[in-house]
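BUG: 3D viewer hangs when loading the predicted structure for this chain

Environment: internal workstation, default settings.
Expected: structure renders.
Actual: progress bar stalls at 90%.

Input used:
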Amino acid sequence: MTGRPSHPVSPGNTPPHSLCLTAAHPRRANLQKLYACTIFTPMPHEPGSVIRNNPLAFFLTWTTYGSWLPGDARGWTDHRGTIRDPNPRLRRIATGSLKRESVVLGPTDRDQVEQAIREHCRFRGWHLLAASCRSTHVHVVVAAENRRPEEVLRSLKAWCSRQLAARAMCSTSRWSRGGSVRRLYESRDVEAVVVYVAELQDRPRDG
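Structure tokens produced before the viewer hung:
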């Protein structure tokens, strides 16, 4: 079942532990490299703007099993990616259909998920701009040329599942079905999402 984590706009009181892969200034370095490979074409109706045939990056989010169910009071995302309003009746039905307890990732699991994301992006040749694994969901900002975001999402989830299963010696998936995908066409949108993922995840690593 697919859910949707909230996207708060205020930072927490503690610095986040997230992967923002840069050198001195990781966000800037990766964004500059990404933009250098992008073809910009002026838009005739709006001076100074650009047309991009392909997105600069994808913003991917997926949740742990049972943590963000259809009908959730925080809002939720259906299988088509449409954001839906809370629905208490649907939430009760979804809760009753769970086959096992909901999954909450501990600090070690979260570290392993972020490491798996970094390694898989390096192996695939994708540009990982930021990643943050929280106790009930994962955020990733990645540029993957000639790939559909749904394909990248499935690949990352599968690899993270393999790494978690190998450590725990358990094949049960930690994730809910599907996830949220957003295509980012504007550099300012990429920058804003990277800041959100890398800097506004308001929880300490050992929390």
